[in-house]
Amino acid sequence: MIISEMTKEACEDFLSSKNFGHLACLNGDRPYVLPIHYVFKGGLVYSFAMPGSKIDHMRVNPNVCLQLEEITSDQDWLSVVLQGRYQELPDTEQWRTERMYAWSALQQRPNWWEPGAYDARRHEIGDQPSHPVFYRIQAESISGKRAEPN
Amino acid sequence: MIISEMTKEACEDFLSSKNFGHLACLNGDRPYVLPIHYVFKGGLVYSFAMPGSKIDHMRVNPNVCLQLEEITSDQDWLSVVLQGRYQELPDTEQWRTERMYAWSALQQRPNWWEPGAYDARRHEIGDQPSHPVFYRIQAESISGKRAEPN
């Protein structure tokens, strides 16, 4: 097996070709990681979540890490890591265009809304109507490794 | 879709049935996440890695988070999160039994050694022989959610 560093362009192509990865954030000095669906366009990661502890954590410390991999076999895989900063896209005039862009890009995935829809329903039942939080991640570094059989 | 909390027992059964997940650790106030192979036995996660930045980070801050999921469809999935502390299993008399236990459990996976073997070879070529670092994670909390179609 030969492991090589991927170019930034190859990493970005891989990020663009996928829409599922694992996002790590911080809760104080404790790490937290969860799977997310995202869209990568124009050098930015777009995603959304219902309000909750994950969003609270990223508002306090915007440092995040998105990692995704494709494993064909133990000797044939690639893994890309994007480190960057969380930036919320609030429902205000200033952010309307960017927010609509995120919504438009994300909703192209089949059933993209399902988990959010559940949470929204639950919040409504509890008389606590809630709205999704859209956000983007500005990349500060992107790197990747590719393994190929000898 | 109905989302329910999993019992601790169901979470542990799921952890035992899998050997691949995503581990988050901290580099200062920045999160880092990477895929790992592991074995979960007796309430402990066992894994190993070649010396490097990940190991360095966990030695400084042993707080880690392991997450794994199984996604059958957008409405049928489960996700388990284990938060705990990194604990190294050094090659000393005191830790020999535990270290051998980890090695024995981990090497039951086919090709489990491949990435480490590559790194070991590279280190040897560079006249810097290196050995894998075995570690375990002591769980402080385990939780999980299961989604099922209505």
Percent strand of chain A equals over 45%
CATH topology name of chain A, in short, is Pnp Oxidase, Chain A
Q: What is the CATH C-level name of chain A?
A: Mainly Beta
From the coordinates shown, what is the CATH architecture of chain A?
Roll
Largest interface, chains and sizes: A-B, 33 and 33 residues
**Counting H and I runs of at least 4 residues, what is the number of helices of chain A?**
4
Mean pLDDT of chain A: 87
Largest sheet of chain A: 8 strands, antiparallel
Terminus-to-terminus distance of chain A = 5 Å
- Derived from helix and strand composition plus strand pairing, the structural class of chain A reads alpha+beta
Which series of helices and strands of chain A comes N to C? EHEEEEHEEHHE
What can you see in these coordinates?
The structure is a homodimer of 150-residue chains. Chain A is α+β, with helices and mostly antiparallel strands and 150 residues long. Chain A has a single domain (2-148), classed as Pnp Oxidase, Chain A, CATH 2.30.110.10. In chain A, 27% of the residues lie in helices and 46% in strands. Chain A contains four helices and eight strands; from the N terminus they run βαββββαββααβ. In chain A, strands 1, 2, 3, 4, 5, 6, 7 and 8 form an eight-stranded antiparallel beta sheet that branches. Chain A is globular and about 55 Å long. The N and C termini of chain A lie close together (5 Å). The A-B interface holds A 1, 3, 22-26, 29-35, 61, 63-67, 69, 71, 74-75, 79, 81, 83, 110-111, 114-115, 118, 147 and B 1, 3, 22-26, 29-35, 61, 63-67, 69, 71, 74-75, 79, 81, 83, 110-111, 114-115, 118, 147.
